[in-house]
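#struct-queue
[09:14] JT: dropping the first one here, sequence first, then the structure tokens:
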Amino acid sequence: LQAKHFALLTGHYSRVGFHHPGPAFFYVQAGGEWLLHDLTRVVPAAYNGQAIAIMALNATLIALALTILYTWVRSAAAVLAAAGITLIFLAEHPQLVCSTWMPHVCFAPFLLYIFAVASVAVGRLPQLWIMVLAGGLLVHGHAEFLLLVPVLALAALVPQRHRLLKHRREVLIASAVLALFLLPMVLNVTLHWPGEIPQYLAYGHRAPNSPVAAARFLAQFWGPGPALGTVFLVVLFAADLALVRKLAHAGIDEAVQAFSCRLLRATALATALFAFYCWYGVDHLWQSYIGVFSYALPLTLLILGSSVLMVLAMSRQVVARHLAAGVA
């Protein structure tokens, strides 16, 4: 209700006693409620409009991730394979895209953020605004991303630091998107000084979890249980590393090689950052919902592996002739 009157300046309330940084997802839900329930009466209840708005947002973010992939591989077959893998994965975890619960809504932005970080790091600066969009949604969604998002952003921007001044238009567009996400946070601190910041800092000063327990917490999002999750984590990284190296020996376009390598690195960095958060940031390791956004990590590797495998297959004429029918 506050968002429908543009009066909401904070995110959802946390069980540990503070509001998360921003209200972006509530404004999306409010927009769906206003358009689909209040204005058009397409849906019978206010919550229906909220749920459809979140699902539409998730669909858009996942589509953007696949679009970024296509801009690099330029292969419809590879993107179709990646989309198929994505749909199978989401069929196993439908709550990640069909739920309005805040821990679930961070999944799609995190998936897009990893792809955008990799793309910008390789030099696709026109996609900088997409990286800022996904990062802004994540920071608004949960305080933990105040650590993860800036570090991953540095990994993308540092390699391109000398080119940023030459691409002023892209930087200005990204800055406008960033300003939109910063506005409610800055207003909240200004109007209700000092806002939520002291509580974020106080929460950060706590004893770490044991490394083994933190590793078990991380691995549960990679497979059915920590043991198999650990196996799948190692296998997926190893398989994707082998496939990416194979690109260099198969005469594939260097741009595809560069993006695939950077996407693998971005996923590895995001996994390491999440591991650090599991070790030092999660207060109760039995609260598994805290890490459900990290389902995006194994999905990213599955998308990368399937698309690279398809690109390699397409490079062989015998396979390529029959590949369209096989993909269909």
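[09:21] JT: and here's the second one, same format:
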Amino acid sequence: MRIVFFIVTLVVLASVSYVGISGYFLAHAVAGLLKTGPIAAALATAEPPTDPLALGYRGDPMAALSLPYQTVTLDTALGPAEAWLVPAAGVESGRAIYVHGIAGAREDGYRALSILHEQGWSVLLISYRNDPSAPASPEASYGFGLTEWPDLEAAVAKLAPTDSDPKLLVVADSMGGAILGQFLAQSPLAPRVQAVALDSPALSFGAVIDHQSAQGGTPLPGFVAWTAKQILPFKTALPLEQAEVASTFALFPGPIFLAHGSADRIVPIGPSQSLSAARPDTTVTLWTGADHLGSYAEDPTAYRAAFQEFLGRIKG
């Protein structure tokens, strides 16, 4: 019996040690991802594509799509941030703002821009804190929407300065979805947004940690993720437990477009599927087998058709 007790004790201690150490390293990795610089540096080593509708393309709207544009300034709390305004061709049928994801860029919005412009929409492609064309944040880290949403508020104030202005569509990718969710939950300007389009949206920081733990293929991923969540507050000053916006989108009164791929290695598809199930009559969905933000590349025809169906649901 003593031997059995000894063996069981060793197994328990080993398991606890494993979970603690693995949780620490997961928390360390996640905190590192929120720091500005590492992801952008890694992306900078890749050869940029020449297709303006491919992620990673860099170039202004005229160089990319032969679309005239204006460079405008957003008055954010940290200082001026640059944005590109692409006016509608002819009579304007609507106005839209594009919000990119972590370490992304305005150019990532060209897929949506190419659809919106041909439908008569004016589009504002914004930068926000920690982008090269915007102020750096004092903490030099991304806030998963908790710190960035006032920069989106500045964009809304720019494109729709009064409540009587045309209502807005906001298109958001990846962490841009978290930014938009925080804006909708906290900003007095939120009622000016009439519709929302989301691609691979980061609706839950907790779900992202769970997903990253499961992606590692190591034992006890749920316990490791739970441990990482307990350690993260000591590694970042952000109240990351508040970085949960699925319920905000579930209560959003307007139409939503939602695209997500089942092979997404960064943001799990589960919260997106739950959001769609919570509001089936007001959400246009496109489910693919793509990786993160890869649904357009996997099937451009289906993506454009679903997006155009969504635009048809927006009231003039």
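[09:30] RK: nice, looked through the second one.
[09:31] RK: Strands lie at 70-76, 79-86, 94-99, 121-126, 168-173, 193-199, 256-261, 283-288.
[09:31] JT: good to know. The first helix runs from residue 2 to 34.
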